Amino acid sequence: MKMWKSFILGLTLLGLTTGSQAALQPLDKVVTIVNDSVILQSDVDAMLKTVHLNAARQGQPLPDDSILVNQVMEKLIMETLQLQQAEQFGIRIDDNRLDQAISQIAAEQNMSVTQLQQELAAGGISYPIFREQIRRDLTASEARTIMVRRRINILPQEVDSLVTQLGQQQQESVQYNISHILIRLGEGASQSERQTAERKANELLTQLNQGADFTNLAYSASNGPKALQGGAWGWMSPEEMPTIFADQIQGQGKGAIIGPFRSGVGYHILKINDVKGQETVSVTEINARHILLKTSVILSDEGAKKQLEQVRQDIIAGQRSFADAAQALSADPGSAANGGELGWQTPDIYVPEFKQQVETLPAGTISEPFQTVHGWHIVEVLDRRQVDRTDAAAKNRAYRILFSRKFNEEAQAWLQELRAGAYIEQPGFDDEQG
Asked: What values do phi and psi take at 149, rounded to 5?
C-alpha cells in the first residue's frame, strides 16, 4: 500500500515539474486516499460548483468555500466508501436508468433535460461530469440500501403496536353520523323483563339486517332521547358521544349496524350513517376461471388459438361445460382440478394481458382466445366484489413507517462503521488547508 501511494504522489509531483508544455495546462492532484481509491481536486471543485448552483436556485446564502470544502470532502469520502461496497456487489447503473433519473430531476425542477443542461452550463458544470455524479449517487444509494436492509428486523408486535397508535391518532379527527335505538329497562327490572327487552332488541336487529328502515323503527320502538328525531344523533366525534357508544363504534365503518349491547338503562342498537375523516381502503376482487393451452413443437400458436375458439363455441352452445373442458384440456394444473377456477383475487397479481381481460370482461362472458407469456387462454369472469382492505393498508403503512425509521437509524450506524474501518489519508487536502 505504501509503495502504491508513493507511486500516485510521485506521478502528481512529476506532472508539476515536467516540460514547459505540461506546465501550460492545469493539473489535477490527489487530495485524499480512501482505501484503494483516490479523490482528486477536480472532484472537490465539481461538487463545490454543484452546491453553489443548488443554493442559487433556492436563494440560499452560503458560507465561504474554505468552510464548505470540509463538508464536501466528507461527502466525497463517504460516497467513495459506498462505491467501493457497490463494486464488491457488482452494482452497475446502466444508461437507461441514469437517463430516467436525470429526467426525473429535471421534472422536479419544472424544466426539460435540455433546460437542465443549459442551467448546468451557465453554472460552469459539465453535463458529462454531472451525469457521472448522478450515476455515482445512484450506485452509492443502491449499495447502502442492500447493506442496511440486512440489518433491519421488524417484529409483528411492533407493527401491531404502531397500528393501534396510528388508529388512536386518526380516531381523534374522525366524526360519525349516528342513529340510535334504545329498548329501556326500568330500574330494578326483573330477569323476565330483561329477557323480554333483549328479545325485542334482537328482533329489531333482525328486521334491520333484512332491510328495515332504521328511522322508522326508531320512531316506533325506541325509548331513547332522540326517538322523535328518528334516532338521529347527527355528527359527533368519539369524545362527544357517550363512552359506551365510542367503545362500540371503534373500527366500524359507514353503514355498520352495531348491537344490541347493554348498559345500565337498557339495550342499544347503533347505526353509522356516515363517517368523516376516516381513511378506508377498498379493492375489487374477481373470481375468474380460465383454460390455458401451451404451445410446443406439436401445437403451434395458430393451432392453440383455433382449438380454444372451438372450445369456446362448444361451451357457449351448451355442448360441454367450462369446468369439464378445463379439467380435460387446461395446462394449468392448479386451476384445472377446480374446473379452471382461480378463486377470489385482485387483478394486479395477473400478467398485463390477463389482467386487462378480467378487468374489462362482463361477468358471465367468455373471452376470445388471447396470448400471454404463459400461453393461450380463454377466461370467464364469474363474479366481482368489493373488499375492505383498511386493516391490511394500516399494517402496510405501519410497516413502512417502522422500516423508514429503522433504515435511517441503521444507515447512520453502518456509515460510521464503514468510515471507522477505512484507511483514509489526505496529503493534498491537508497541505492546502495548512
From this structure: -55, -35
Measured over the CA atoms of residue 122, residue 125, residue 128 and residue 132, the dihedral's sign is: negative
CATH number of residue 182's parent domain: 3.10.50.40
Q: Burial, 377: exposed, middle or buried (Cβ in 10 Å; 0-12, 13-18, 19+)?
A: buried
Q: Give me the pLDDT at residue 429, please.
A: 58
Query: Per the domain annotation, does 156 fall within a domain?
Result: no
Q: Within a 13 Å sphere around the CA of 298, how many CA atoms are in the beta-carbon half? A: 2
Domain count, the chain: 3
Given a cut of 50, whether residue 386 has pLDDT beyond it is: yes
Between CA 361 and CA 340 the distance in angstroms is: 17
Percent of the chain predicted with pLDDT > 70: 90
Which three cell numbers mark 429?
A: 487536502
- Tracing cell 358471465 back to the chain, one arrives at 364
* Same domain? 132 vs 23: yes
Asked whether residue 408 is domain-assigned, the answer is no
pLDDT level of residue 6 (50, 70, 90 thresholds): very low
Mean pLDDT of the chain: 86
Element (H, E) at 426: none
User: DSSP code of 225?
Assistant: T
Is 93 found in the same domain as 63? yes
Sheet strands side by side (includes 257-263) = 232-236, 175-184, 266-276, 257-263
Q: Can you spell out the DSSP letters for 80-147?
A: HHHHHHHHHHT----HHHHHHHHHHHHHHTTS-HHHHHHHHHHTT--HHHHHHHHHHHHHHHHHHHHH
Task: Please tell me the predicted confidence (pLDDT) of residue 300.
Answer: 95
Cis status, amide bond into 260, omega within 30 of 0:
yes
The four Cα atoms 296, 300, 301, 304 give a dihedral, to 10 degrees, of: -90
φ, ψ for residue 110 (rounded to 5)? 55, 45
Whose CA is closest to 32, among 65, 75, 64? 75
The x, y and z cell numbers of residue 157, run together, are 408486535
Question: Please, are residues 265 and 205 in contact by the beta-carbon 8 Å criterion?
Answer: no
Q: CA–CA separation, 312 vs 361, rounded Å? A: 15
